[in-house]
Hints:
32% helix, TolA/TonB C-terminal domain, alpha+beta
Amino acid sequence: MKFLFFVCISLLSLTVWSQEELPVPPPPEKMVQEPENYDFVEEEAGFPGGMELFRTYIQANLVYPQTALENNITGKCYIGIVVEIDGSISNVKLLRGIPDCSECGKEAIRLMKAMPKWKPGKTGGKVVRTRVNLPIRFR
């Protein structure tokens, strides 16, 4: 019995000592990260001329979808955008559309992508990327 115990312990210790350490992979090169988006800033990003001119821009450039006109569909689409540090618009996304009108969401996205540059947001005196959510009303 003692002999069997001695053999088991010997084999176990040889197994543990004979294992080589696995090489540690080298650290990845500098990872490319997207610049941070700010949801809350000290100075909000804004349409050039203010929200009154933004409404005028929407009224002048919105093309009401034909299916929405035919079916008398009204409602709001909510669009999320990112105002870059140079004022350009990126990452345009439909956050919530009108349930019966997918064309309304597509039109709201088209309208946001065609906008002129905005005044960028600021935090701590530094210009930053700013996330903005906007309602687009179809009526």
